[in-house]
Amino acid sequence: MALLANHVPEAATRVDTARQRQARITGAILIGFAALVALVFAPGMDGDATFRLARFGDTLAVPNLVIPAEPSAYVAAAILAFLGARQFLRGGLRWTSLSLGFGLFLLVATFLVWATAGKSFSLVGMLQATMVRAVPIALGGLAGTLCERVAVVNIAIEGMLLAGAFTGALVGSVAGGVTGLVAAVVIGGIFGFILAALVVTYRMDQIIAGVVINLFVLGLTSYVSSQVFQKYRDLNNAPVFAAKKIPILGDIPVIGPMLFDQNIFVYGALVLVAVATYYLFHTSHGLRARAVGEHPKAADTLGINVYRTRYVNVTLGGMVAGFGGAWFTLGSVGRFDEGMTGGRGYIGLAAMIFGRWHPVGALAAALVFGFADSLQQKLALLQTPIPSEFLAMAPYIATIVLVAGLVGRARAPAADGKPYVKE
Amino acid sequence: MSDPQTDRAALVNALLKRAAPGRAEFEDLFVVPVFAVVAALILGALTMLATDVSLSTIGRSYLALLEGSLGSLGALSETLTAATPLIISGLGLALGFRAGMFNIGAEGQVLMGGMAAVIVGFSFPGMPWAIHLPLAMLGGIVAGGIYAGIAGVLRATTGAHEVISTIMLNLVSYRLLDYLLRQPWIQKSGRADPISESVLPSAELPRLLTWIDPNLRVHAGVFVALAAVGLVWWILFRTRLGFEFRASGESPDAARYAGIRAGLIIVSVMAFAGGLAGLAGANQTLGVLGRATPGFSAGIGFNAISVALLGRSHPVGVLFAGLLFGALEAGGRQMQVDAGVSIDLIAIIQALIIVFIAAPLLVRTIFPWGFRRTWPAKE
Fold this sequence. Notes:
The structure holds two protein chains of two kinds. Chain A has 15 helices and five strands. Chain A is 71% helix and 4% strand. Helix content of chain B is 73%, strand content 0%.
C-alpha cells in the first residue's frame, strides 16, 4: 500500500508537467506567430485585399470579400498574442490544440491578406484546389488509421500511393480509366497484404518493413518507367476522370465548387471517410479491430482472431491507399513520373496523428495540408517577395510543427507498433 | 507492466547474448545475408524477364554487374568510391538503430553536410591544406549534426516521432539546397543554373591512385571511412556513452530506471548520426564531385538505411554491407552501359535484400535447408 501511495501523486505530477510543457510550447509558438505578423507582415501593407468568392458564370454571384490589409493584420497579431500569452501563463488548460489550430488559421489568413494586399485573389479556386490536393493525403491518412487501429504502423503508405499511381497509369492506358482504378485498388491491397504478412506472420520490425516496401516500390516503378515507358509511350497515357458537377448542390456559393463539382476521387474520399468512421466506431467488426489494436491479448482471449483481423484491416488500408495513389495519375495528369507522390504518404501519416487516429480527423488535417499545398502553388501568381523554395517547404514545415505541437497529447492505440505472438 | 527488476534482467540477458553469439547468431549474421543476396538476384532476374528483357541480356547484365564491381582496378576503385559515403552514413544510422532511433533523414543530412563542406571549401583561399581540409570536413559534420539534431530535440522535448520529422526535414533540405545554390555568394559566377563554386584544391580529399591512371577516382575518404568504423566501434562497445546508447535501444524502460537520461541520449545519438551523414556528404563533395549541385546526394542517405540494416547495426557489418552496396552501385552503372538495363534495377535488388535480411523467419521459410531445425526462441 505504501508503494502505491508513493506512486500515485508522482505519476500525477508527471502527467501535469508534460501537459503544462506542451501548453507552454504551444504558447511560445503562438507568441512567435504574433511577433511574425506584427513585425513582418503588418508594416508596409497598404490597400485592400480583394478575395473573389464567385467564379465567372456562377448562377449565384456572391460579392467579393474586401479586407483592409493593415488594420486586419494588427487585429490578428493582437489575437495571436492573447492566445499565446493565455497558453503560456496558464499552462495545462484545455483548448491547447484548438488554440494552436486557430492560431495557425489566423497566421495563414493574415499571410494571404498580406500577399493579396492591393491585388485580388480567387478564394473559390483556392478552396477547390485545397480539396483536390487534400485527397491523396486524406486517403493516405485513412489508410494509416485503418492499419494503426489494429496496431500496425504503416510507413509504407508512400509506397502504396506510388504503386497505385503507377498501376493506375499503366492499366488505365491499356484498358481504360475504370479498370485502371480497380487495378490500383487491387495493387494497394496486395501491398497491404504483403505488409501484413511481413509484420504479422514474419514479425519483421514494422518501420523497417514499411521503409523497405517504399524503397522497393520506388525502385520498381522507376525501373519500369525508364525501361518500358521510354520505349512504349502509349503505355503511360491514361485517361483522366473529369469533374462531375452534382446538380443543385454544386451551385451553392463557395462550398459548392469545393465539394460538389469535383471528380470521382474527391467524392470517393468523402464516402470512404464516412464508411470507415461507421465501420470503426459503429459496427462489431470495428469494435473488434480496435480491441486488437488496444489489447491484442485480451482480444485473443475473447476469441477474436488477432492475426486475421490485422491482415484484413491492413489489406483494406492498402486498398484505400491504392485508390488514393490513382489520384496522382487518373485524377490529375494521366501519366506516371518517377517518385511523383513526393512525400504525400508521409504527410498522410502526419494527418492521421493530427487527426487522432480518427477518419474524420484525418480528413480535416488533410484539408489543412491541402490548403498549405495549394497556397504555395497559387502564391506564385501573386508574386510575393518570398522565394518559391520557401513556399514549397511550407507543407513540410507545417507537418513538423503540427506533429511536434500535438503528438504529445494525441494517444495512439496502446499496442501500436508491437508484434503479437500468440501463446 | 514494466517491473524494473525484470527489465534490468532482460537488458543484461540481451547484452550477454550480444557478447557471446551462439549458433543462431551465426546463422543470422552470415547464412541469412547470403541467402538474401541470392534470392534478391533471382527475383531481380525475374523482374527483368517480366519487363521484356531477353534471357541473354539478363546473363550479360549480371556479368557486367560482376565485372563493373570487381573485374578490374578501375572497377574496384569505383566500388570503393561508391562504398565510402554509404559506410560513413550507414555507421551513423547504425548508431541510431542501436539506440532505438529510426532516423530516415540521412539524405537531408548528407545534403546539408555536403553543402556546408563546399561553402567552407571555397571560402578560404590561401589556407594551407592541413587546416582547410579538416575544417571543411568539420563543417560537414557540424551541419549534418545540427540538422539531425532538430529532429532529436523535437523528439526529446515534444515526442514528435523522428520518422516523420526526419522525412519532412529531407523534403525541406531539397528546397533549401535549391535556394542556396541560387544565392550569388554560392552560385558559380557566370552560371545561370544552380551549381556552386568549386572546392579549392586545398580542401579536396586527395585521390589515391592517379599515379597509375588519372581516371581512378578512389580518394582519401576511404581512410576516413575506416577511421569512422573504428571510432564507432570504440564508442559503441568501449565507452559509457555507447553502453547507454545500447541500453536505451535494448530496453528503454530499464535504461530509464537505471538512471540513463533518455532525452540526452536521443539528442546526442541523433547529432552523432547526423554528423556522420554530414561527413559522408562532405566526403562526396570534397572527394568526388568538387562542387554541389541539386540532388548531389544521389540517394546515399536512403541506401545508407539499407546498409545499416544489412550490417545489423554493427560497425564491421556496416563496413561489409557498404562494400556490397558500393559494388552493386558501381556494377549497376556498368550494367546500364553494357546491357542497357536501367540502374534502377539495382534499387529493387537492394530493397529485396533488405526484406530478406530484416525478416529472418521469411528466409528460413523459403530456404529450410542450411539452418538448424529448431527455430530461435521467441524474441
